[in-house]
Amino acid sequence: MARGMVIIDEDRCKGCGLCISVCPVHILKLAEGRFNAQGYPPVEVTDPEACTGCAMCATICPDVVFTVYRRKRRSAARA
Amino acid sequence: MAVEIPEDMELVYSYPESLTKVRTHYCPGCTHGVVHRLIAEVLDELGVRERTIGIAPVGCSVLAYYYFNMDFAEAAHGRAPAMATGIKRVSPDKVVFTYQGDGDLAAIGTAEIIHAANRGELFTTIFVNNAIYGMTGGQMAPTTLPGQVTTSSPTGRNVQTAGWPIRMAELLAELPGVAYVTRQSVLDVPAIRKAKKAIKLAFQTQLAGLGFSMVEILSTCNTNWHMTPVEALEWAKEHMVDYFPLGDTKMTDAVRALKEGK
Amino acid sequence: MAKELWEGNAAIAEAAIRAGLEAFFGYPITPQTEVLEHFSKRLPELGRVFLQAESEVASINMVYGAACAGARVMTSSSSPGVSLMQEGFSYIACSEVPAVVTNIMRGGPGLGNVQPAQGDYFQAVKSAGHGDFHMIVLAPSNVQEAIDLMVLAFDLAEKYRTIVMFVADGSIGQMMEPAEMPPMRPVRPPEERAEWALTGAQGRKPNIITSLYLGAENMERVNIRLQAKLREIEKNEVRWKEYSTEDADLLLVAFGTVGRVCQTVVREAREQGLKVGLLRPITLWPFPGQRIAALAEQVKGILTVEMNAGQMVEDVRLAVEGRCPVRFYGRMGGPIPLPDEILPELEKLNAEVGGEEE
To answer: Cα(C146)–Cα(C152) distance, rounded to whole angstroms?
Structure first.
């Protein structure tokens, strides 16, 4: 089960690739053969199950493309 | 597109309220977007968006007022600190900040920033230093590195004729009215997280009425440096940080106490 | 309130305070420094803002900022300092925020001197800064009028959300005269600032104040709006004073200090049998051109007298459109034209237009 989850606002993405360079689990890549409303190839998640919800992509993204969720700690989840 | 969020997931990052949803005109990979976001996150966290007034500069961030979700004025080139002074003096209960680039703050607006800082004006300046004039197409800036090639220093900045890059964070640190000045960067994730803390402390300094506060932020201009966004981050880390060392250049005891929660 | 003896510069400052001024930003320059000095004492006493800026460039941008925040604000300077402020005038005009600027004019060009002059007429009326705009320009000719016009300046600035320039020469600034101050108006509380002002977007959409319009059509739209406002000002706000024009054969046109000297000239000329009248523009922009055109139908010739090389005379000629001869007499760099210099010019004009002395 994935520890984290990102939601990508594709139309905000400019395909700069900064998120790809910092993702510790290497699950981001630019789309191939399709473009967003701005004409850029948007970033995609290749393996959602591997996401840790670390938010490094969101931290370096200049265009606020990412919304990030992380699985609650067990104790918190129970509470 | 509705996405179902599993119940045991918690939101750890979402769009700040202090930014509008307008897509920026910045080039892909431009770190202005990162700095905008950090300011917005800080203003959200401090709960002051509705009493904040920003001042945009002339330069690439001239349209910043479309991106920040708060009252904003557009200054003449370099004059943002004078405008901020005028606003803050007649509206002392507001949170006021200027957002300025290196040409704006360290060349044409040098007098205004020095005197505003020296008076201890109670506003915050976010100074984005990317060592080049971005909007006009990559000319030499006051912070362009020695030997750096730009469209107006085609054989590299010659310090014998063009002078040396100005270290504004160090220069302003000399002034008694300054409470907090620091140089940060947005060149990697840990640096971005530190920069946000610094921006927050700068605004807290203002809110506590402790004096002038400025965060200089080493930034990139991949377009005019003729690099990819990722290469630009690496280039800046390799070359800019040597000349513009990161860290606080001025922190009064009162600001330190604020930082340490005393 | 009873009349008291006031020095022009101090009177200008006090009148602004009585008009509800909230903040002054300025830089010392002769011959306006007493304006700044008066504010430096009075404003802090009253709990209002006084700040001596690092330059005139900074002063006008502080004014711009405070005006954006919705405060009643002004600066003052003298000719070379006003030149430095011109960038700001243009921004303020385009952004449509209200501000008042005083220019106690001195001799120029360049550093010039600190003598009274009117050499900044063109600058004030025609070339206040880059782009298409006009400032409302008010020109008093005595201390009482300076007081009254200073109060009016703020009302006009706010009514039209525009920049108002108050021009006087050094002699009005430095002279002492008995004058009556208006009562103190209450300062507008911050919560009553205009809805367009930058006051924090609490429970409303953000306000943006800018003079940047990148698209050609957008910029043109803004210009059309600004021009419409200027036409409205031209329609409503032309002010002047006439002296003995009812039966005049010759007309003097002069403003400020010279307008005052010319009142004496009218008296002396009439004693000599010359039927001379005077029109003294109070607003240099909008200019009382229509009234001058009407008088040009009545009189045989017009003499414009200024403390410059002939600036307002161009507007007089534009208004007159050849209806009668328009001549000029002026002194530059400090000397004030005196009646015994002006009278012979009137006699010359009278001879030229075939008039007789009664």
So the answer is: 10
